[in-house]
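Q: Structure tokens for this one, please.
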Amino acid sequence: MRSSSSVSLTGGRGSGSVRLISPPASPVAVLVDTAIEYLMVKKDFQAALDTCEKGLESLASAEQEESCFKNGELKAALTIVGIQALAELNQWRGVLSWVLQQYGETTKIPAKIIQMCILLFVKVGEWAVMKDAVNDWLRCSNNMSQSGFSTVSELYLLHILLPMGRKTEALELLESDVGQVAFTEEQRQAARSLVDLQKEKIASLSDPDPKSVAATTSAVSHKDSSSERLNPVMRLLLRGLTVASVRVRSISLRRVFLAVMLLYLLLIRMDPALPSAFPWLLHLHRLLQQVWNTMFGPYYKGKTQN
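A: Here is the predicted structure, written as tokens:
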């Protein structure tokens, strides 16, 4: 015998059946879905931004204390989509001010939105834009209980302070209340090591090894003097071979090139095995090509025509 009080999930019309109907979505939630569709599917970024602003205006005018948490989530979702739309519209410079219009104060911005703003401005190389805002946000005691507080602190340290060269501020952050809350002792030690490495790197760039500087200067000076000495020798050698081209046509080509090579090595006195000799050997190759064209080009051209 069937019970008359059975529950039907298919929405039957029996006297004892119960029909499960999902509650209708709020108008602002619909606007969130619409904004996401404009952004991700239709690629209409201006329409996505306009939809977000419309939803944010609706939330600002609503006074529903019982659904404050839900409104906060909807506001964060609309703000995130709006940030992405502004970035796609190449209006990233106004992102921080636009976010502040929605939340009023820097310290009231949710952690996930602060993280998004940091990543955006780091990507375009504008670290300084977020420096003061993030510092104020971290110093607010109410934000230390947020789940994303440690992530914001890490982004601030690694992607703002260190790239800007603020090593002292980075060390102070690690020892402050912010560092004590955001990082473990191992993480703070690793961050200190990272700061020390950056100090050593900057010191090596600003004060390089004197021996390496002297060696580089000597190599450049030697290259310049060799180049100055090589050019007139090349011109003299080419001129002499051009004048004597008629007389040497009967000589073996092999002997001519051998004589040119020996004369070159005697005048320059350079070891061909050295790496520094490679540019000059390339110079010699071009010279020999010129000698060939000047001395034997007309001869072989005439011989081919005959």
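A few notes: The mean pLDDT is 74. Residues 254 and 260 are 10 Å apart (CA to CA).
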